[in-house]
Automatic annotation (TrEMBL), chains A, B:
Its EC number is 6.3.4.-. Catalyzes the formation of N(4)-acetylcytidine (ac(4)C) at the wobble position of elongator tRNA(Met), using acetate and ATP as substrates. First activates an acetate ion to form acetyladenylate (Ac-AMP) and then transfers the acetyl group to tRNA to form ac(4)C34. Coiled coil: none annotated. It catalyses: cytidine(34) in elongator tRNA(Met) + acetate + ATP = N(4)-acetylcytidine(34) in elongator tRNA(Met) + AMP + diphosphate. This is tRNA(Met) cytidine acetate ligase. The keyword RNA-binding applies. HAMAP family: TmcAL (MF_01539). One of its GO terms (cellular component) is cytoplasm. Belongs to the TmcAL family. GO terms for molecular function: ATP binding; ligase activity, forming carbon-nitrogen bonds; transferase activity; tRNA binding. It is found in: Cytoplasm. It comes from Halobacillus salinus. InterPro entries: Rossmann-like_a/b/a_fold, tRNA(Met)_cyd_acetate_ligase.
Amino acid sequence: MHASGVIVEYNPFHNGHQYHLQQSKRKSNADCMIAIMSGPFLQRGEPAIVDKWHRTRAALQGGADLVLELPYIYAVEHSDYFSQGAVRTLAEMGVDSICFGSEDGNIQSFIDADQYLSSHQPIYDQALRTFLNEGYAFPEASRLAFQQIGFPQDGIDLSQPNNILGLSYVKQMLTYHKRVEPLTIQRTSSNYHDETIDSRIASATSIRKEMKTEGLSLRVKEALPSSTVDQLREYKTRTSIWHGWEHYYPFLHYKILTMTCEELREIHGVDEGLEHRLQRTVKRAASFEEFMKALKTKRYTWTRLQRTLVHILIGTTKQQARQLLLDTKPAYARVLGMNTTGRNYLKQQKKDMDIPLVTQPQQLDHPMLDLEERASISYYSVLNADSRIERMDREYKAPIIL
Amino acid sequence: MHASGVIVEYNPFHNGHQYHLQQSKRKSNADCMIAIMSGPFLQRGEPAIVDKWHRTRAALQGGADLVLELPYIYAVEHSDYFSQGAVRTLAEMGVDSICFGSEDGNIQSFIDADQYLSSHQPIYDQALRTFLNEGYAFPEASRLAFQQIGFPQDGIDLSQPNNILGLSYVKQMLTYHKRVEPLTIQRTSSNYHDETIDSRIASATSIRKEMKTEGLSLRVKEALPSSTVDQLREYKTRTSIWHGWEHYYPFLHYKILTMTCEELREIHGVDEGLEHRLQRTVKRAASFEEFMKALKTKRYTWTRLQRTLVHILIGTTKQQARQLLLDTKPAYARVLGMNTTGRNYLKQQKKDMDIPLVTQPQQLDHPMLDLEERASISYYSVLNADSRIERMDREYKAPIIL
């Protein structure tokens, strides 16, 4: 059996994701499609609207054969660590290829870009450092650094976050996992950040935005497979919410103001005196949105701040993050769900794996899993007590088997 | 001008408290009645039902001339530290006497008890230690130790928490503040712990219990001065709640489970492996009451556990508590409110005071005030954002002047 991997968040799983899975399967000629998915918190530093289990079920019903969880410490990180965590785990799972969506749809553009960057790495790094020191936020500093090294104008557009991620995947594969072939398929319309739904293929951002005010409206339902609609509905019936940052604001507020500046400074992402700004700002802000608007500066991007706030909520220290992120090998691969194909693939692959396969977190004693538990506890904190207990119990049970 | 002190919680200020103030004024012959009152959290380890400001206003309208705040670190402590904080501050305020309520109403009984205890202190201490080591909770161990040293059967009843407190006050005065005369007045009916209201003089416990289910019922209103009824009504209109432990349970749950065992162990009151029991128990408990019931053992009294939970909520470490509690002198006296009499007394007394008089916390830089701020933040965390901001703003404003 051959497997191919996709790196995903499924927040929520929509028609575009289903198309991506179908096309990736066709392109890779794989028997088994493995999705590695962020858990409770996502790359942009946001809570997922529904828990990993409801997203996993939708993914399995939409074409994934095996769903793994990308540990939170990789999931809530910039593209380099995010890709590292995801690509390395998929490589350990023995995939032949990893297939990502791009506007371009041509893998050679990414390979060329990676080669150009590799051969200009020292100049790029220096330029990046200079721009960061001048107070530019990372995306802008990075764009300027690309310009400085004369990155070809007709190459891939590196102002697009999805292209930066794609390039990051390719770099991981070409540098560390030459056995894994990078593949890309062309995205059908809809930018990652599009805010309105205008077809059956809509961005997750636009879908979430519509859901926030309109619930499971006709437009939302048109953009989602019916299994996702069922999962979203079920989660809300069960817990009464779809998670958003505003739910967490009372906890975040309480946490930031009951920590000392010294404690805040130890948290992953709290640098350059941000602790004072956090405490000063949170006192006056009546909502998460108000808080973020008051917090944001040119230097701190929205995404970077949100990631830091996730780390504060969970209480992840710089020391913990450093230790876990510097490991060159994934600590384990955690299975969230599978169908028969996924199960057969796992059976075949298990004996060749160099890292433990975890189907229930209590099977392994590792600091990464302790942190995962805290991430889950933080994520479910906003639920009523009964749902909270029920959802935390779910964390220790067997994967979903379809 | 002469002043007398009372040591209070006013949760809420009721007819019995008003009677206590009147009688104390008469007995002490004082011009100015100074009440030192617990702030957001109380001696039994509970949040006050309404904030200190609404309780202060009711106290001023009910006969107090000057209201001071007993810092949280003393307020949420067993009788020795509680008395130490309160008596020392009142002594610094220059009171001639401190008058407390007792069933007995005869100060000589307390003085005799103190003398008997002083002369048997080493045997008492040893007996107490033995019983504690045998696993008895403090109140029971203490009762057995009194028995062991042959404490007279016809002396004051030391199984009554209020008598233990009274004795503690007397001991503080006789040992460290000989200039301050201990006085007691007889309580009119109603035990401290009575759970039902059966007259105009009812216990605060019974009043809170009735309020919880019946709101400001006729019976509640009969047991309270009308100014207290107004203050309770206003607080609820403003913030929508009367505080109780259940409001804090989501925060406590989140806090306990996102701290490591090592961090929990550093918290004031978390001893003898309690950290493991806390984490294990909180996971399964759907409410504060369920949590407490599962947590309680013979060794840990309800009160001791609740105090520890307050320290966890606020994040007070053993080190902070030790430093502050070992200070032999109060760090400051904080004024919450006063009438003209109180103001005149302050004017007269100010120049003779050895400790800073604080009318707004920003006037002084002291670790005690940092901790007070965290206590307030924790207390107000359960309010909606607008009330939370408004109430925290109040903390930095001038005292109530009636």
